[in-house]
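To whoever picks this up:

The nightly regression suite flagged F-box domain-containing protein as changed. Nothing in the input moved, so I suspect the structure step. Input below, exactly as stored in the fixture:
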Amino acid sequence: MPSPILPAECFRKILNLLDNSALYNCLFLNRYYCRVVIPIIWQNPFVKQIATFTSCSLINTILSCFDEDEILSLIPSSINLNTQPPLFAYVEFIKKINHDCLVEHVRTSIESSNGNGSYLDCEVQKLANAIYNRIFRKNTAFQEFEANVTQKNYVDLPKFSVFTNYEPGIRRLRSLTIFNLDLISSDRKRQNTSKFLDMVPKSCDSIVNLELWIKSIKSIFVKKYLDIIKSQPLKRIFLYIDSPERITYNLELEFRSETLKELILDSVDFKQISLSFIPKLKHLERLEFLYCKGFNNCVVLSNSKLYLKKFKLWYCEVGDLIEEIIYYLCNESLLKLTLSNATTKAVQIVKESCPNINYFCIRFYARTFSDSIIPFICDLTLLNVLNIGSNFGIDMVSLVKNFGNYLIYIECLFFDFNIDLQSFIYFTNNCKANLKYWIITLENNSSSKEYLLQVCKFQNIHNSLKTIGIKKYGDGWMKEELEIIDILKNQGINIVTPDELNYLFC
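Regenerated output under the current build:
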């Protein structure tokens, strides 16, 4: 098979879109594919363990990249050392390290080598340190690091010198994730991790993405996190704070007023932290509040001059303040809006203040919405994608019928709730929108055949559908249902799983 005509860089970008399963198949096409695919597969090798064989194979391959001195440094060791020369310099392709996963692969490999399922912490630490040292000795690709605690027995990072002995080390680090490090109770087990966080502000100057999961605001690590926030040109910050301490604190986010474009706040209590920093983030384009509370003092947002493109307010305790929040933060720059619940007045504000919105996702978690909310949603003339959902048990019959009456402009529709057949029939018979992409969720006790027939009728009238995703519970398709699906396919409609359309609706 001849080499592709496309330039190598274009070809790599295309292959980067494939999952690992497809990439592994590409390895066996020819030498050219193999040379291109191996660096892609090895960008992030330390993923969650699936099987003992996977861990052993991964660690053995890395050990094959060790030189003689590195192998000697591991003796004595219970693990079987691989002395077979590697086909590629695999570790030089690694862009991302998840510390917890790396340690778990090492631990599993040692357990397998011992044959009795046992291991010593010192053995795990020694081999993990050696792997870090080998990765950074010649690696120029490294960009992402996750220091996390999900295992019961945390293994410390290697000494910080491992990250800086060789160029570029962590100097080009662009993404840093810190997950629950405050759960480490032993000073001995977190000594090198603590030093690592101390040195990041001094050794790095290119971190643009920071994710922090904080369980205690009194943790010794919090000041170190704030130093990273103040020192790095961050463009995206994700903060999860679920601290039992009832104290006030400052996130120092105003230091990122010139760089920050995306901010996601999860489980934050704004009784403990003021919202006053938000109006200062003048370059912010995406803002998300997830499961947050304590929005009592929204007046600080009244001077906001933000020009958000994406805003999400998801299962937050806002009460009647939702209208104020939308009024202060949303304007003509907004393109994408996600709400877990909304009043009619709130959606009216969206219609009046956000004329350019093209994506709207709304979830109803209580039967508090009024049917009067539907016309305001349907009057968003540039709206292209509509994602409607509800919590289990909410009667959505009148909502579906009203969308049938008013919906005109959108092309992508997701009904993320069980639709009863009668309201679905009403919707398909009355809807004026020329839908192109559509996801429906079938009611558990209804025949899929009747729903599919209604889709056929809709297509006969509109001739607009390109792809439909069907969320169906229970057994697979019956013969008569497959016959209708074939009719839809013959009309040029792709029938897919809802997951295959997620890119449109997320």
